[in-house]
Backbone:
């Protein structure tokens, strides 16, 4: 993981903390990979892959809300664009699912440009209203157009085929989204460790000061919005074959709100945080199903408490960063420099060519 | 002396109120130009006009002979005119190191493919930038703070971090808005040393400063503003004894 966190120039030095953390990550990934082996219960598997799907969406929205600090209340629109593009192309034009991802992404990017260009220079609260409207418009179009199947939507979407492998079971889609989550997480980490990620954070923190860094703030806000659109659309394109049927009801304001909640609960800007947040948002209401109607109330109360107790989410950006340094100072080591020693940098330090 | 930065009859109005009137200033190569004047004289507004934050009502700003009036703030910064802010503006939830890296934004790789695959070229260029960021922090004496959140730094250190953030861009001109205001006398010594070193390495410095002793000590030129007008300009020792200046500025209470 070259860009995970401060990688030492001198690789030979063994750092206990880094080993421990790498071990934890591997354990987590392996455990998640074994979920389908642990249960054959289709209901559990369904919930699990819905959670992965929400993680993908949350990682996409995290670029817009978490990194660039722009409140987007219509993110499900891009999810819908991907899902409908794939749904239409695969059922009516007999495209393969994989091939239909690209046109979905293209349409999502064009929409992001059309919506974003005139509005992103507005302050965040206006933006929230405009994106909310955009989400409603996309849903309304889906309900009223013949090509999108009206209120009933599109059904009998063919299975995803990768080479000669046909993905049909819940287990299969669990693994498809498993890979997608990992790809999105690595992509987000890479962006975050580059000048794009830095520019987005600067804009989030102080837009006027960002300009003094030479950052073209309008362009960078648009980039964030477009990257979010791309990730949202790809997720939608794979969601369509996973459910085999899509309808406008899945892409409304409540879906957008779930994604925002996932990002806010986990911790704005933190990749581990938003993934965890997505899992909580998806799984919590399922676990409390026995409460019937009251479960959403319970969830709401838990949310309010969380936002009061931890306003920056469960795992905010630097939740773990300080830890490395703290552990080291306990061990009597000091953090000298990101370049020379056991540094625990907030962002990636590119490693020496190995 | 050729002018690096120059304004030509620059005026700025806020709803009929003249914040700046007819300012013509020339900042020559290698100058350490101080701008002084009482509160509300228009010093910060002048900086804002130079850096694209305000659009002057009339007049022109020229940088190395080319007109830059009314350019967007990011474009001005890209040209090599960098500034600090009177009410320090750090990115609080980013580390000190990342704040400085942000200052080097335009020097970092923007090739999306290289970033996505973490290519050798990308890693090399980021490494170089990290080294330079650390060197800038070293320059202002903050290297050991690199991993702290900028928002957690005490006031004086934030001021120095803002300087490091400016320096990593290798600017042609730096505009410092009251770099020594509100800091302890120890910090003030440190800051004046850093400013002098910036000047020594050939960077043009324009500095707004209330501390007259500091100005007299390090400036090569002084311009005095009052009510948006220039009331005196020239060498520090000449300005100090100018009767208008004494009346308008020195006579009043300092901030
Ligand atoms: N955005 C603005 N809108 C309206 N008036 C403004 C604006 N910015 C500055 N002014 C006015 O312009 C005048 C000059 O202000 P400026 O901040 O430039 O003064 P200054 O010399 O930097 O003062 P100080 O020493 O207090 O920093 C003041 O009267 C101020 O109220
Ligand atoms: Mg001022």
Residues:
């Amino acid at each position: 993981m070259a860009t995970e966190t401060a990688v030492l120039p001198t690789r030979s030095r063994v750092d206990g903390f880094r080993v421990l953390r790498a071990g934890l990550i591997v354990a987590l990934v392996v455990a998640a990979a074994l979920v389908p082996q642990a249960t054959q219960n289709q209901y559990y598997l369904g919930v699990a892959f819905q959670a992965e799907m929400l993680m993908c969406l949350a990682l996409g929205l995290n670029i817009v809300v978490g990194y660039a600090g722009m409140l987007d209340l219509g993110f499900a629109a891009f999810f819908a664009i991907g899902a409908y593009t794939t749904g239409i192309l695969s059922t009516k034009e007999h495209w393969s699912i994989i091939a239909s991802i690209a046109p979905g992404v293209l349409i999502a990017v064009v929409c992001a440009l059309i919506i974003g260009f005139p509005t992103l220079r507005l302050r965040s609260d206006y933006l929230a209203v405009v994106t909310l409207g955009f989400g409603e418009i996309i849903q309304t179009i889906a309900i009223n157009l013949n090509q999108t199947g009206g209120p009933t939507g599109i059904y009998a979407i063919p299975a995803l085929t990768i080479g000669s492998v046909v993905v049909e079971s819940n287990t299969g889609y669990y693994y498809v989204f498993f890979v997608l989550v990992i790809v999105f997480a690595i992509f987000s980490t890479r962006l975050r460790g580059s000048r794009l990620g830095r520019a987005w954070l600067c804009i989030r923190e102080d837009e006027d000061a960002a300009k003094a860094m030479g950052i073209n703030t309008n362009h960078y806000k648009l980039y964030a919005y477009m990257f979010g659109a791309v990730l949202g659309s790809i997720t939608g394109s794979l969601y369509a074959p996973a459910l085999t049927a899509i309808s406008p009801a899945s892409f409304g304001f409540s879906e957008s709100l779930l994604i925002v909640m996932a990002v806010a609960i986990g911790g704005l800007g933190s990749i581990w945080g938003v993934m965890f947040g997505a899992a909580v948002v998806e799984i919590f209401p399922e676990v409390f199903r026995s409460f019937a109607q009251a479960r959403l109330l319970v969830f709401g109360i838990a949310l309010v408490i969380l936002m009061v107790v931890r306003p920056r989410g469960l795992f905010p950006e630097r939740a773990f960063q300080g830890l490395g340094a703290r552990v080291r100072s306990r061990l009597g080591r000091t953090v000298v420099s990101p370049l020379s020693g056991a540094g625990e940098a907030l962002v990636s330090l590119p490693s020496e060519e190995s | 002396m050729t002018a690096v930065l120059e304004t030509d009859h620059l005026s700025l109005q806020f709803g009929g109120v003249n914040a700046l009137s007819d300012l013509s200033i020339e900042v020559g190569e290698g100058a350490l130009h101080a701008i002084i004047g009482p509160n509300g004289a228009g010093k910060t507004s002048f900086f804002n006009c130079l850096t694209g934050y305000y659009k002057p009502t009339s007049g022109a700003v020229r940088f190395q002979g080319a007109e830059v009036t009314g350019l967007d703030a990011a474009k001005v910064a890209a040209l090599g005119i960098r500034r600090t802010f009177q009410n320090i503006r750090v990115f609080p939830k980013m580390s000190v190191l990342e704040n400085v890296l942000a200052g080097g934004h335009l020097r970092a790789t923007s090739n999306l493919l290289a970033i996505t695959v973490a290519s050798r070229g990308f890693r090399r260029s980021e490494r170089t930038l990290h080294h330079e960021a650390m060197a800038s922090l070293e320059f202002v004496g903050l290297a050991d703070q690199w991993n702290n959140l900028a928002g957690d730094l005490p006031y004086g250190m934030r001021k120095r971090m803002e300087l490091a953030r400016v320096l990593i861009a290798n600017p042609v001109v730096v505009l410092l808005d009251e770099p020594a205001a509100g800091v302890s006398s120890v910090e003030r010594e440190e800051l004046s040393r850093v400013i002098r070193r910036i000047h020594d390495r050939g960077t043009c410095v324009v500095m707004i400063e209330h501390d007259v002793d500091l100005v007299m000590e390090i400036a090569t030129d002084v311009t005095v503003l009052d009510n948006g007008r220039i009331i005196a300009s020239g060498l520090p020792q000449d300005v100090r004894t100018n009767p208008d200046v004494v009346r308008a500025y020195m006579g009043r209470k300092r901030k």
